[in-house]
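S2.1 Query sequence (Vacuolar protein sorting 55)
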Amino acid sequence: MAGIRSIIALSSILACGFLLVILSCALDNNYLPLTVVATFILAPAPNWICGRCSNPDDFMETSGSAIVDFGRWFTGFLVVMGIALPLVFNYSGIISTQATVMSIIGGLLIYGTVVSFTMFFSQTEEEF
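Output structure tokens follow.
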């Protein structure tokens, strides 16, 4: 039962994140803050891909830590870009300060729930 409650809670937080980003777009009638959604949704992908590529084989004793470090770096780059992009839009006068704040908070909520979903489902796979 706790699994269902976790999924419902994470889904509602994800919906709040999308709502904040969409409201930040509708506030200025400018849809450039939607790029934040794509950035934060794609952010965990390099970490996941590089983690899968670096799994040591039974015949090899060393693990490729360089590829894991690259995945972490690229994930960090995407997260920082998701925060910096609305700030650059605000600085250039494309979106307002309220839209910037709503876009950053909504993007961080989206990223947090995507990471939480992956952690939740990776734990359930290991049990079976």
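The chain has one domain: 2-55+62-127. DSSP finds five helices and no strands in the chain.
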